[in-house]
Amino acid sequence: MTKKIVVDFGLCESNGVCMGIIPEVFDLDDEDYLHVLTDEVTPENEEQVREAVRQCPRQAIAIRDE
Ligand code: SF4
Predict the structure, then answer these.
(1) Domains of the chain by start residue, with CATH
(2) Which of 10, 19, 21, 30 could form a disulfide with 26 if both were Cys (CB 3.0 to 4.6 A apart)?
């Protein structure tokens, strides 16, 4: 089973908290639009992705089992 990062863009307010935790996964562009650079949760990124889930002030990030 793989785990995927899902962002609810309707909730996201582009404050960059997630990017500050793991910029390899979350990137805000010049127009403050958030991009998920890779949506796969891996053993290497899982701890930081979960931290981003916890710290997102809008609770816009989720991890979905597929
Ligand atoms: S921390 Fe949450 S609200 Fe902030 S940019 Fe990331 S997804 Fe959006």
Answers:
(1) 3-65 (3.30.70.20)
(2) 19
